């Protein structure tokens, strides 16, 4: 008879869905379990069926102490994926939060920033672990103090959206740009980018922002799109299934948590920059980024930023290593690549959306920059 396993994992987040993918991968390779998937919010109390359930194992992300006690009473083997508290009460697997904090810090350091900040959630162990590693890594690189902002995520102390955004705005006003900020997750990153827009701080030219989780939808809702550290949630799910299989065979395992390092960084617009301490040049680059895909010219940039052509040319070369015209083309071609990869739009439509008057000219510029044609890029047949 197949072992009966309950998976109590939220499916509303990309992290939870990737965890389940890893568990399924293990099942297909090794054990064909009879699975019951309980899609629950992480804050809910134990389900009523738990006390009378006659199963063989549980993998759970639910975090309440009451739930932990209820599991203990059943005697059913469980692997814990909870990362909200300091210590594990069951054998478990989680993201290596210290490695995530270091990865975010190194990504921002590589962009030339000397001033850093961290924005997280109070009382959340996973956020605190990321913060500690981020602060240690950045302070080893820079003599300036790393600013930190924390506030409650959930519970009675959590603020409304508008109240929280105002607190974030007030915090940002106290930090002189340019500054690179790591958010504890993508939701926090979205909060930051919105707060920057409220006080006209240019992201990424004045404030670079990186989140965690690489939630594609959340990251692309942000404007500009949000860079993110990619946790290896699928591997975490796979390892959790391995541990549960061992427990169900009668092995005794310590209540320790196995940390899994992140996969890397998904770089998007919010950190696609170098540190720029000249506010006028930061404003000019922001104008280029926001208007490149409507076909903006260098003359328009000069007219709208009150910078002389010679200064613009000299400073853009200094910071980016290319001319203003090349920077406009860089933004356009990057958008062309995104549309080729994520849509089935024809070339003429993509050309229009990216500021090219004619698709033939887009084809010429794309091949000059990328070394292959747009069609070869879309098909993945280039060199």
Could you explain how this protein is built, in words?
The chain starts with a strand and ends with a helix. It contains 15 helices and twelve strands. Strands 7-6-8-9-10-12 form a six-stranded mixed beta sheet, sandwiched between helices. Helix 9 packs across helix 10 (298-305). It has 383 residues and is an alpha/beta fold.
Key features of this structure:
15 helices, alpha/beta, 12 strands, 383 residues, 47% helix, 4-stranded parallel beta sheet
Topology readout:
Layout: E1 4-8, H1 14-29, E2 34-38, E3 57-60, H2 65-74, E4 78-80, E5 92-95, H3 97-109, E6 116-121, H4 125-141, E7 147-151, H5 161-173, E8 179-183, H6 186-198, E9 207-212, H7 216-221, E10 227-230, H8 233-248, E11 257-260, E12 264-266, H9 279-291, H10 298-305, H11 309-320, H12 324-342, H13 347-353, H14 359-370, H15 374-379
């Amino acid at each position: 008879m197949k072992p009966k396993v309950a998976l109590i994992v939220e499916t509303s987040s990309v992290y939870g869905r990737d965890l389940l993918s890893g568990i399924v991968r293990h099942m297909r390779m090794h054990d064909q379990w009879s699975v019951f998937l309980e899609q629950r919010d992480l804050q809910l109390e134990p389900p009523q069926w738990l006390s009378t359930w006659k199963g063989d194992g549980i993998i759970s992300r639910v975090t309440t102490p009451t739930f932990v006690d209820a599991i203990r009473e059943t005697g059913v083997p469980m692997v814990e994926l909870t990362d909200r508290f300091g210590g594990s009460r069951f054998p478990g697997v989680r993201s290596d939060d210290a490695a995530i904090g270091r990865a975010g810090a190194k990504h921002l350091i590589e962009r030339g920033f000397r001033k850093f900040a961290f924005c997280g959630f109070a009382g959340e162990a996973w956020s605190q672990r990321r913060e500690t590693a981020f602060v240690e890594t950045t302070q080893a690189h820079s003599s300036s103090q790393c600013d930190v902002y924390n506030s409650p995520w959930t519970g009675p102390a959590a603020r409304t959206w508008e109240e929280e955004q105002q607190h974030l705005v007030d915090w940002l006003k106290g930090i002189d740009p340019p500054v690179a900020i790591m958010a504890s997750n993508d939701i926090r990153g979205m909060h930051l980018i919105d707060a920057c827009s409220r006080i006209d701080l240019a992201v990424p030219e004045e404030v670079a922002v990186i989140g965690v989780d690489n939630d594609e939808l959340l990251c692309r809702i942000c404007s500009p799109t949000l860079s993110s550290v990619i946790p290896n949630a699928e591997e975490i799910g796979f390892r959790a299934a391995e541990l549960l299989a061992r427990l169900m065979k009668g092995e005794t395992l310590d209540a320790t948590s196995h940390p899994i390092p992140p996969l890397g960084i998904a770089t998007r617009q919010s950190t696609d920059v170098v540190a720029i301490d000249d506010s006028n040049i930061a404003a000019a680059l922001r104008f280029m980024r926001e208007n490149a895909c409507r076909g903006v010219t260098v003359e328009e940039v000069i007219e709208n930023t009150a910078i002389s052509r010679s200064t613009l040319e000299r400073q853009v070369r200094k910071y980016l290593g290319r001319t203003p015209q090349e920077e406009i083309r860089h933004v356009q071609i990057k958008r062309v690549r995104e549309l080729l990869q994520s849509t089935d739009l024809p070339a003429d439509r993509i050309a229009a959306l990216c500021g090219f008057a004619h698709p033939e000219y887009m084809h010429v510029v794309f091949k000059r920059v990328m070394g292959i044609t747009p069609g070869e890029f879309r098909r993945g047949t280039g060199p």
